[in-house]
Structure prediction request, 117 residues.
Amino acid sequence: QVQLVESGGGLAQAGGSLRLSCAASGRTFSRYVLGWYRQAPGKQRELVASISSTGDTNYADSVKGRFTISRDNAKNTVNLQMNSLKPEDTAVYYCNAKNSVLYANYWGQGTQVTVSS
Prediction:
């Protein structure tokens, strides 16, 4: 059974930092694209950052220069370091693992991030 479990969310002040972690289990995810998405109240879920199996990264324009995604294939984990947080970063953050060749797409349960001004 595949599981993605996020941790590290919480409350931060504007300008502060949080680090999200996602532990994947149930299979090896080294060939999956791993990503973080977020959904704010009343808004659609959006891609925050992703990292390919070869380490190529992609960021939403709104987080470039502030957030850093990383992965550890040996541990089946993906992390999101969030610095210089802004109130508009407030959302539920979801971990995602995707492999288009295998038609696989998995989601975590989400973790709340709240940034106060």
Notes: Residues 44 and 75 are 30 Å apart (CA to CA). The first strand starts at residue 3 and ends at 7.
